[in-house]
Every structure is written in structure tokens, then in C-alpha cells.
Amino acid sequence: MENESQSRIYFYFDESGDPNILGHHGINLLKEGKVSKTFSVGFISTRNPHDILLKLENLRRELLEDETLKAVPSISNLRNGFHANKDCAEVRREVFKLLKTLDFETYIIVAKKDEDLFRQKFNMNKKRIYKYLVTELVKDHIKNQNQIEMYFASMTGIVSPGTMQEAIDSALKAIYKENEAQAKINIYVQQPSHTPLLQVVDYILWTIFRFYEKGETRYMDFMKDKIKIVNDIFAKDLEDKKK
After folding, report:
1. Could you tell me which of 168, 171, 206 has the C-alpha nearest to residue 15?
2. In terms of pTM, does the model score above 0.85?
3. Sign, CA torsion 226/109/111/126
4. In principle, which of 10, 39, 46, 72 could form an S-S bond with 17, CB 3.0–4.6 Å?
């Protein structure tokens, strides 16, 4: 049997919130409460995506055929898969109950937004912000793998195969010594409707978003066994700024 450290593993990435801070004429939308307070990137890790896919699809079909849900307007959205922010409460409840039983782990990096910090580190460039978060997120998770299939949820103007390759290359450069054998990594950018496991990470990120944006803990607490790391990456920078 193939050693676990040599087997193929699958990472599925998505984001929550948005990287925007400024609006037209440089207006700080963050201070006006018109954009999210955070921008997060996360991924789920699994060695058995097929099992997760089958169980998600079975649940989706059951819910589409559920007579008690037919009058709910958002049920039609299930034809394109699950989406935590759009699904009704009844659907969301069933999805979370299923996710709790599935074989995956989630790793998330949270960037609390601040105009001075984002200007200094990224010159307010959204693509640079996303790349940085991906690089920092994966550093601790690619070193001891043989082959990784990475799937990223599409994000217009920001997430592309080239951009994500640059982010992963930065992570590889940071953790591997020269001439050291590296993990083989394949990168794909997909629509969540075409890659249902991206819908899983969407759901988990939604729980973290609710916590940071609204102080709501019940969904995050329910899924805590599946959430291995939440890295609030700029917490120290922002704390130092207050001093």
C-alpha cells in the first residue's frame, strides 16, 4: 500500500468577504460600514474527494425533491449547487449536518482590513492581497506531500491559474532548500457550480465570516472539529498600530 505521505491529496480554495477598502474618489468604505471588515481565504484538505462529492450530490437531489421546500424561492439555486449565503435556513441546516460527518480538514487565513496596512503592504492591489494570503496559508501544508491537486474558486480579475501559480511558487521557494525534491502541484481554477467541493469550503468560510463580521459563534462552534487553523494574520500589526 502506498505510504500516506506519498499519496495524492486535494486542496479546495475559496474566499469570503472582499478585499475592497476604498470607493470612488478614495472614500474609505470600511469606515462607513459599506464593505466587509475582513477578507479571508481558506481551503479544505481531503484524500477522498469522491466520497464527499457523492454525499453532497445525494443531499442536493434529496433537497430538490423535498415537497416541503418546493415553495422556497431559493431552492431553484440548488440546481447549481450549495451556497451558504444564498441557501435557505432549512437547506443550510442539512448541509452543515452532512459536512460534520465528512472526511476533510479546513485551514483559513483571515485578514482584518485597514487602509494604512493594506496600502503599505499591497499598495491596495487586490491581486497582491489574495496572492499573499494564499502563499502564507499553504506554507505549512505542502512540505511533506508528494502530489497536490489544488482547485481555486474563480474570482474575476484576481484568481487565475497564473496568479495562483505565482502564489504557490512563492510558498515553495520559502520552504524548500535549493535542489530539494518538491511536491508536485497541479493548479485549477473552477466555478463552484462545476466543482462541488468548492461549495464545502464556501460553507466553512461562511461560519468564520459570521464570527468576524457579526460575532456569531453557533455555526463555527458546530463545525469546530473540521476547522483546524484560523490564522488572524494581521492581528499583531493592528495591535501594534494602536500603541
Report:
1. 206
2. yes
3. negative
4. 39
